[in-house]
Amino acid sequence: MLKGKEIVLGVTGGIAVYKAVELLRLLVKAGARVQVVMTKAATEFVTPLTFQALSGNPVHLELFNLISEEKIGHISLADRADLFIIAPATANCIGKIAHGIADDLLTTTVMATRAPVLIAPAMNVNMYRNAIYQENEARLKAHGYLFVAPACGMLACGYEGEGKLQAPEVILEEAVAALTPKRLAGTRILVTAGPTLEEIDPVRFISNHSSGKMGYAIARQARLRGAEVTLVTGPTCIAPPLGVDVVRVQSAQQMREAVRERLEKTDVVIKAAAVADYRPKLRAGNKVKKETESLTIELEKNPDILAELGACKGKRILVGFAAETQDLVRNAGVKLEKKNLDMVVANDVSQEGAGFNVDTNIAKLLFRDGRVEELPIMEKEELAGVILEHVEHLRGGERG
């Protein structure tokens, strides 16, 4: 999402400047073209040469440089920016911007830009809690400036609390969010992801190979597009997306309860979880000992969460998944009709690049009007975007 984007990275003076170096590396790795503007104080912590080497561009330091500039520097930087990031941002810099003071290259460029401005504060906890600083931050938010809340932890000054510059990965994610159109703003989306785990005894269980990657990608992309997202997830090893309400469950029964509890306040349900069809009829209270040559476990059906949702969906959009190994379109079409879905994402998990525990998928999208859209192999993040584009169209039809 950042590929080819022009980003201006403003760096102000503070011990957290070293994290801005890592942020720059991540931005460049994501395909962005980055121009770095440093205040004089910032150069006392890390030299401009470090930022120049990583960005591949000269670092901008002076408000007026009539020898090397053909254009007015701060206007040129302001005009070319798709996004302006200030990280770390000191209380002093934030205070000046809040009151329209433009007395150096950084603050002057911010004043002149029409691009979104994302500010990542870093300061002493008492400075951060100071009423004047809080007023300045609120003032800027009211004018549309974006903020990445600082982390809590041990600060360089020896205090502990808020004020620590947020992790570069978090700032990067908020940069992506700032540049993503908010076409799903005001939409409440519930996503299910991962496997369910059905216990045999306190040690053993029945499950499947689902990694949760597809559902997590959908939750992340929905949040980036402005939706209010709830992710109901079975056991996975994936870090949850930022800004998403995460509800962790284990069994199909728990997932059913979590979904039903939140259904009333949901506009769209995307059921990407691989829910176990069966569970042991009896769960042993203690570990079943290996005393016989064979073991018979009687299974009983789990509730069909998707079918239950289809029966009471009302005006909600309902999207299901069909992981098959044969007769893909026919089986997915039966699921679409039988469970009253608006769309089914079908994939043949026996295909290379389309199964579990991989970062790609090969999908066919089936719709209620009989359309079948065949997609090439793509990253699950990209497929998540395609799915949500269709959700946007379906929502538009409902509103119409």
How many domains would you count in the coordinates? 2
Task: Give the DSSP E fraction (strand runs of 2 or more residues).
Answer: 15-25%
How would you sum up the major sheet?
8 strands, mixed
* Alpha plus pi helix count: 13
CATH superfamily of the largest domain: CoaB-like
The radius of gyration over CA amounts to 25 Å
Assembly context of the chains: single chain
**Going across the major beta sheet, what is the strand order?**
12-11-8-13-16-17-19-20
Give the terminus-to-terminus CA distance.
30 Å
Which spans have pLDDT < 50 for at least 5 consecutive residues?
Answer: 66-70
CATH topology of the largest domain: Rossmann fold
Structural class: alpha/beta
- Per the principal axes of the C-alpha atoms, what is the gross shape? elongated
Q: Portion of residues in helices?
A: 25-40%
InterPro entries: CoaB-like_sf (IPR035929), CoaBC (IPR005252), DNA/pantothenate-metab_flavo_C (IPR007085), Flavin_trans-like (IPR036551), Flavoprotein (IPR003382)
Function: Catalyzes two steps in the biosynthesis of coenzyme A. In the first step cysteine is conjugated to 4'-phosphopantothenate to form 4-phosphopantothenoylcysteine, in the latter compound is decarboxylated to form 4'-phosphopantotheine.
Catalytic activity: (R)-4'-phosphopantothenate + L-cysteine + CTP = N-[(R)-4-phosphopantothenoyl]-L-cysteine + CMP + diphosphate + H(+); N-[(R)-4-phosphopantothenoyl]-L-cysteine + H(+) = (R)-4'-phosphopantetheine + CO2
Cofactor: FMN; Mg(2+)
